[in-house]
Gypsy retrotransposon integrase-like protein 1
Amino acid sequence: EPTPPQCPVGRKYVLLGVRDRLIRWAHTLPSSGHPGVERTVRGLSGRYWWPTLVKDVRHYVSSCSVCAQSKAPRHLPRGKLQPLPVPQRPWSHLAVDFLTDLPPSQGNTTILVVVDRFSKSCRLIPLPGLPTALQTAEALFTHVFRHYGVPEDIVSDRGPQFTSRVWRAFMERLGVSVSLTSGFHPESNGQVERVNQEVGRFLRSYCQDRPGEWARFVPWAEMAQNSLRHSSTNMSPFQCVLGYQPVLGPWHQSQTEAPAVEEWVQRSRETWNAVQESLE
């Protein structure tokens, strides 16, 4: 079967008899963990193509017995059928998601991505793997709440961490309302999805020759993400939260000869330039 002319450059055309097996592999691989239609499509479409890919994935995922058994309840929590509340200040309304399937780096394979829906600030928290509901709540308390206070609302997808009774109980005790995106409208958590894509793209492009080192570059990715002007606010997240734009990597000349410091500065300058270029 010849490759059709409409097959995008750089992608492999998949023959009819192999498509179902490829979808099953992309959806059920332990590192995939039965993602939804959109993420399964995203995982395949970067490398493969055939005309009915999206339709075939939708049909496969909708008939997956494992997904059917573990699916969250179909009804949304009461009071959450309205649009998400509009934040009035920084760090009062958060969006959270996970960046997964990263190669092990400093013992981590996952990043908890937290976005402030008001300022578009992000916090990137490396983790050893997909955490439990309680570990997720503790990570948020340690890395976000203690710096910015307890938020009013957290929006997430319907992953098991966020539909868990423990997650709800923890947030209820803190007075935080929980918003869950509908499986049919994942774009309602689009802000954190976008940061996920941008950070993931940077880590993949910059660390492709040294995949085990991505954890070293996460602070730079976070810093760059927070320093770039955001189209919806017309200012950087740093400016929105702090009221000013901090000096970022001035790299002053020094008279002191300290090879270790010079090496760190050089490596940091290269990383910073790569992150800026990738995110812009």
Observations:
- The domain at 93-238 is CATH 3.30.420.10 (Nucleotidyltransferase; domain 5).
- The two ends are 40 Å apart (CA to CA).
- The beta strands are 12-13, 48-49, 93-99, 110-116, 122-127, 153-156, 177-180.
- The CA atoms of residues 141 and 150 lie 8 Å apart.
